[in-house]
Amino acid sequence: MARVLINVPPKVRRGEPFQVKTLINHVMEPGFRPGPDGKTIPRDIITSMTCKYNGEEVFRADLYPATAANPFITFFTIATESGKLEFAWTGDNGFAETATAAITVE
Amino acid sequence: MTDITNASRRDVLLGAGAAGAALLLTLRPLAASPESMDAAIRKLTGGAKITEGRIKLDIPPLVENGNTVAMSVTVDSPMTAANHVEAIHIFNERNPQPYVMAFHLGPRAGKADISARIRLSDSQNVVAIARMSDGTFWSHTVSVIVTLAACLEAVSN
User: Fold this and answer.
1) What is the pTM of this model?
2) A54 CB within 8 Å of a chain B CB
């Protein structure tokens, strides 16, 4: 299981955009580096990240080997209703990770 | 005796040269070039016109460590259902691949403001392209100097 950090404001005002910060622990091996034995280390990266707000997709990112290790991505979304943000990451070698964050709209 | 030593030394040098050439040949196709970036951008836009402006790529002009480069990208857009940013694509000239990252958003974003951390393997231009809901493309190009390259360094024991 990869370690995940999600940061959202404790309370958000209805109709206003708020920032979501995400960080996931992953080596993001680009697949171009020679290892100690001289052979190229095979690629092992996260290829996709999605965020759903109460079931509706609000943000999606495609990741390539040029993404730094431990992908850190921030974005904005509009506060509509209290509920939850669901995050999902998928990648090489069957990598899959999910996380949720509660949103309180006032 | 000396002949044999000389011959073997020459063989060794020849072998080393051939290995070096082979290494260069195998590494060469991996490197992206401005042409492959242009091809990747054309594939995205389908040949549509790209205008400078509206999008701003914020990335340090001098990067000490290419393994982790903080960048942020913002687009000047009202982000309404009728007029919003559909996608933001980041490209580079000289990494092994022209693609860096792509972000898909919509009116639910409220604000087109994204930040992330990327890798850069050489001093080069980084290009951000935004696709709007009306089908237009906007770009911003930033030239970045990288002192320690990412992606291609060997892993030590």
Assistant:
1) 0.83
2) no
**Residue A17: CATH number of its domain:** 2.60.40.10
Q: Which residues of A touch B100 (CB under 8 A)?
A: 64, 66-67
A39 is a domain residue: no
Of B44, B53, B45, B34, the C-alpha closest to B126 is B34
Q: What is the pLDDT of residues B69-113, one digit of tens each?
A: 999 999 999 999 999 999 999 999 999 999 999 999 999 999 999
DSSP codes joined into one string, A12-36:
B-TT-EEEEEEEE----B-S--B-T
Model ipTM value: 0.92
Measure in Å the smallest separation between the Cα of B127 and chain A Cα atoms: 13
Residue A81, domain extent: 4-28+45-103
Asked whether residue A77 is domain-assigned, the answer is: yes
Which site among A14, A62, A70 would you substitute to test the B interface, given the most B Cβ atoms closer than 10 Å to its Cβ?
A62
The answer to whether A17 contacts chain B (CB < 8 Å) is: yes
Q: What distance in Å separates the CA atoms of residue B18 and residue A106, rounded to the nearest whole number?
A: 70
In a domain, A90, yes or no: yes
> What is the rounded distance in angstroms from the CA atom of residue B64 to the CA atom of residue B81?
41
Assess whether pLDDT exceeds 60 at residue B121: yes
- Name the architecture of domain B31-148: Sandwich (2.60)
The answer as to whether A21 is a domain residue is yes
Strand partners, A19: A76
Give the CA count within 13 Å in the CB-facing half-sphere of B157: 2
Tokens standing for residue A7: 């940061």
